Amino acid sequence: MHNATSSNDSLVLYGQTFSSRLLLGTARYPSPTALQAAVQRARPAMVTASLRRQGSNPAESGQGFWELLSSLNVPVLPNTANCHSVQEAITTAQMAREVFGTPWIKLEVIGDDYTLQPDTLNLVAAAEKLVREGFYVLPYTTYDLVLCQRLVDVGCQAVMPWAAPIGTGRGPMNPYALQLLRERLDVPLLVDAGLGLPSHACQVMEWGYDGVLLNTAVAQAQDPVAMAGAFADAVQAGRAAYRAGAIEPQQAAQPSTPVLGTPFWHQA
Q1: 232 lies in some domain
Q2: Mean of the pLDDT values across residues 121-126?
Q3: Which of the residue ranges 48-52, 98-102, 240-244, 258-262 has the most confident prediction, judged by mean pLDDT?
């Protein structure tokens, strides 16, 4: 998987190539100006937007938000945030396709309002139906290996496991599960939710993840624009480190300068 010599290292999802491996959410920024500046600084592959949390009717108060999204010149990834059933998610995805004119959808089917954990019992069914309807589905899921494999089996060409519950900023809470997922699945994997620091993003990219999706960690930072840039740089650094091939951890110290002979002043 490592290929540090290749100049072509673009993110490819559903056959489409992206120059960035960072996806950025658009909610909870202190102002539209901060959102716009953060996107310009990070230059993400896509920005996410929720049809259920913003008004899609131009006559509604959310008109300025949609105009702002259009002005960013970044592909929009609609999501089915706050949907709690298969039918809710499918209906929202269909509406989003009409509003945004795109087959891309970030699929969320929430099973628990406290943790915002995905509904692992219904997520696969929703994904399968949307794939059959021609959607490019990016499912938000846990890091459960069997669940993620089922999502791939029904046609998802990428999977987005969380690192921790949405908005917590705790970083990868189960490194073993995330690394095992990367080892076992041969599709693009993007960490979605729970990252709080650029070092978190760098770490999962070092493990071989293909990208990250962020929102709260940038939007709620004291300086969202600077944090957007820090995350963008961290994602690039982590990817470069993964491709370069890190050394294996050792149990004992290893001299960085080998001893080739005894200096003359140590001779009798």
Answers
A1: yes
A2: 96
A3: 240-244
Reference 81, options 145, 166, 191; nearest CA is: 166
Instruction: List residues with catalytic annotation.
Output: 106
State the chain's mean pLDDT as an integer.
89
Does 258 reside within a domain? no
Tokens at residue 123, please?
A: 């997520």
Residue 158 · residue 182 · CB < 8 Å: no
Label residue 247 by pLDDT band (50, 70, 90): confident
Q: Tell me phi and psi for residue 214, to 5 degrees.
A: -125, 155
Residue 254 maps to a domain = no
Does 7 have pLDDT greater than 80?
no
